[in-house]
């Protein structure tokens, strides 16, 4: 395998990636900071290339955002912060002020447990105590995308009984990676024990066996996260420094002093969702199986998910987006409810200069409420190989009360991963070229990632085994997954 395209040097970018950065993007100094953007002519009706507007509108927006921030302590943006070099990421297991949640591979609580949906609880704290049972699960997810969109790192730490029939236990690690040479790597591992320690200044988790260890350490203020991997599948580190405040499924900011508010963390019936880090500066430095290197800097985030049923029991599919363009950062997720086909639930967040501009759970046009609306595109870009052949999406955030609209065009530029589940359906992940901003104002270019999933009414157990359990087959499982998945 050629190593010439792998990331090199301190910058984390190889020659190919540096050239594409120069081709696609150029720096623009705007509102007191350097933004990655490209200014284009204004061909009427083509919103993906509209680069018009006035500085007066921009300064007015900045003033508006400042006033909103002053009204809410937790709206103050974190801003770019270098990853700390003097902070001790060592986990102290003997601190009496910490709470420890421990689970062995096959531990299951027979009967009801404590299932927290509280809006004011710390987002990274365990939601299910003392153990998961046969229906509920929880997950800590972390991801990162290079500035040119070509390299991906995504991993999740799970406590989940859903796949007990594999015989490997309930403690799972999933890792998805795109290397700079275009290679896609998928790793799935099971471990003997998971421990989450919740302390006054941090939350840390370790999923480990005698011969391997995967861990995360997140500061309590949700500003910094460090992951460490020590196994033959992946060895290295991931670092994330947040620039945005945390948010909940309903669009609101997380407020640890705001008390519990019913429904705030619920995305759809039975599925709960909060985002500790919507966006931040990230860096990954790892070696994967076969000695291949993954190293890059870019944008990243973190997500918390927990549910009272398995994925196949609560949803028919979803579309999830995390992206940025100039001063804008946004997330979007809609879920199609399993028990009422066609009923959809939404969550959307739009940030400007790291301040929350629009947060909503409304996904259809409204005359009164802020909403986020998505439309699939079928023209420019590439599509996946399953039934949904869209080549990208148009995502709009609208605030009727402010008479404002922001539109972003997302074009698929790379298939990051795909898994078939039969009947022409499956899961696809894409890297996106993103262009957008306020309608009638300055437009910016950036990058993002989209995951779209559609499940058939019935998924054979052996297909589920293939998708979620093939990881324990060993080094050859990636090829097996790629080969068999093509039949769907």
UniProtKB/TrEMBL annotation:
Organism's domain of life? Eukaryota
Q: Enumerate the GO terms in the molecular function aspect.
A: isomerase activity
Where is each Diels-Alderase C-terminal domain found? 310-453
Protein species of origin:
Diplogelasinospora grovesii
For this UniProt record, give its keywords in alphabetical order, as a comma-separated list.
Answer: Isomerase
Recorded protein name is: AttH domain-containing protein
| The keyword Isomerase belongs to this UniProt entry's keyword annotation | yes
The UniProt similarity line reads: Belongs to the Diels-Alderase family.
Question: Do you know which InterPro entries this protein is assigned to?
Answer: DA_C, DA_N
Q: Domain (Diels-Alderase N-terminal): give its ranges.
A: 112-306
């Amino acid at each position: 395998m050629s190593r010439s395209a792998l990331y090199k040097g301190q910058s984390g970018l190889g020659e190919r990636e540096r050239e594409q950065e120069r081709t696609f993007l150029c720096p623009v100094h705007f509102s007191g900071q350097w933004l990655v953007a490209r200014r284009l002519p204004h061909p009427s009706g083509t919103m993906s290339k509209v680069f018009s507007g006035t500085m007066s509108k921009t300064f007015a927006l900045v003033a508006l955002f400042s006033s909103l921030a002053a009204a809410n302590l937790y709206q103050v943006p974190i801003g770019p912060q270098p990853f700390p070099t003097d902070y001790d990421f060592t986990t102290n297991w003997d601190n009496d002020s910490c709470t420890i949640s421990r689970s062995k591979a096959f531990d299951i609580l027979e009967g009801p447990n404590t299932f927290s949906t509280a809006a004011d609880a710390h987002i990274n704290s365990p939601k299910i105590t003392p153990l998961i049972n046969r229906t509920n699960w929880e997950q800590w997810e972390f991801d990162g995308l290079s500035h040119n969109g070509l390299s991906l790192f995504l991993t999740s730490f799970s406590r989940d009984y859903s796949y007990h029939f594999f015989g490997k236990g309930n403690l799972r690690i999933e890792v998805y990676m795109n290397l700079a040479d275009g290679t896609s790597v998928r790793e799935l591992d099971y471990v003997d024990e998971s421990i989450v320690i919740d302390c006054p200044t941090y939350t840390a988790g370790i999923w480990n066996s005698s011969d391997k260890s995967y861990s995360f350490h997140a500061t309590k203020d949700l500003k910094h996260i460090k992951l460490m991997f020590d196994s033959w599948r992946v060895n290295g580190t991931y670092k994330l420094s947040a620039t945005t405040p945390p948010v909940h499924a309903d669009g609101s900011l997380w407020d640890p002093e705001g008390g519990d508010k019913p429904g705030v963390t619920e995305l759809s019936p039975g599925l709960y969702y909060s985002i500790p880090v919507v966006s931040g500066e990230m860096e990954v430095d790892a070696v994967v199986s076969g000695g291949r290197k993954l190293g890059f800097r870019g944008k990243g985030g973190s997500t918390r998910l927990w549910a009272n049923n398995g994925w196949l029991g609560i949803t028919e599919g979803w579309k999830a987006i995390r992206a940025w363009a100039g001063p804008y950062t946004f997330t979007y997720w809609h879920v199609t409810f399993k028990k009422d086909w066609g009923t959809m639930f939404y969550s959307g967040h739009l940030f400007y200069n790291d301040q929350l501009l629009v947060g909503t759970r409304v996904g259809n046009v409204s005359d009164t409420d802020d909403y986020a609306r998505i439309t699939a595109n079928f023209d420019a870009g590439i599509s996946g190989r399953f039934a949904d052949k869209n080549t990208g999406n148009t995502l709009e955030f609208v605030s009727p009360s402010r008479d404002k609209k922001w539109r972003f065009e997302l074009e698929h530029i790379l298939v990051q991963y795909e898994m078939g589940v039969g009947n022409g359906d499956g899961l696809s992940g894409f890297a996106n070229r993103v262009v957008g901003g306020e309608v009638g104002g300055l437009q910016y270019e950036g990058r993002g990632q989209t995951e779209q999933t559609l499940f058939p009414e019935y998924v054979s157990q052996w297909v589920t085994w293939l998708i979620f359990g093939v990881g324990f087959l060993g080094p050859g499982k990636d090829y097996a997954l790629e080969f068999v998945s093509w039949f769907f």
